[in-house]
Amino acid sequence: MLKISPIAAFTDNYIWMLHNQQYAVVVDPGDPQVVLDTLAKQGLTLSQILITHHHQDHIGGVATLLSHTSAQVYASAYEQYAFNHIPVTHGQSFYLPEIDWAFEVMHLPGHTLGHIAYYNVGHLFCGDTLFSAGCGRLFEGTPAQMFASLRQLAQLPPDTKVYCTHEYTEKNIQFALTVEPNNQALKDYQTHVAQLRQQQQASLPSSIQQELAVNPFLRCEQNTIKQGLNMPNADALKIFTELRARRNLF
């Protein structure tokens, strides 16, 4: 049975670790020490590292981890990396025998142009593309690119668990309520997340079903969102663009 758990890093990052009590895979290890400490504490061997995009808080630990382990690294073929890695492209699948899991690669430009996600039925490791009740900033891509990427994710099965890499959920919910204040699912989710955070538990993973109910960036065609922005006749991309601009300032 594979266990998936977050390793907290920096102020709000999560490094997701998948392990079967022998081998471990980590996603976006920005901080090497917390990974090494966790491996040692649990007696695990690091077999693979999965990278979603090139930002330092996601790759900063790779070189050190490679100096301590013989892990293989998988990373986007659409970005440049200084460390040895296996480049992967959209639609490609690969199998990790140590944990007996396969992943399909999804290219999701927006946050960065080469951003990718790793999908295994029921599980999505999406880096900084989709957050719970939010989405990533557009550092390199256009609103149209990010909107298309989020639409890809919205088509995944509703029960897909969403493993994003930052604990931004409470702030994202606060923003979402400014544009959809009467969304009962969103208000209920705020209560649920507040309870988790008060107990110092992660608000993640979320799910596609949860996000379709509460995430304004996946709800751009909803009349309640359009009314909340006072843009009743705007198309979904214009709504998304306005939402992202407002969230940047929130």
Brief overview:
By secondary structure, this protein is an alpha/beta fold.
- The shape is globular
Please report the number of helical segments: 9
Helix and strand succession?
A: EEEHEHHEEEEEEEEHEHHEHHH
Count of DSSP E strands?
A: 14
Q: What is the CATH top level name?
A: Alpha Beta
Tally of structural domains:
1
- Identify low-pLDDT runs: none
Beta-sheet strand percentage?
25-35%
Helix content bin: 25-40%
CATH superfamily: Ribonuclease Z/Hydroxyacylglutathione hydrolase-like
Word description of this protein:
With 250 residues, the chain is an alpha/beta fold. The protein has a single domain (3-249), classed as Ribonuclease Z/Hydroxyacylglutathione hydrolase-like (Metallo-beta-lactamase, Chain A, 4-Layer Sandwich). Helices cover 35% and strands 26% of the residues. It has nine helices and 14 strands. The strands form three sheets. It has a six-stranded mixed sheet, covered by helices on one side. It has a six-stranded mixed sheet with strand order 7-8-9-10-13-14. A hairpin with a 3-residue loop joins β1 (3-9) and β2. α5 runs antiparallel to α6 (184-198). The protein is globular and about 55 Å long.
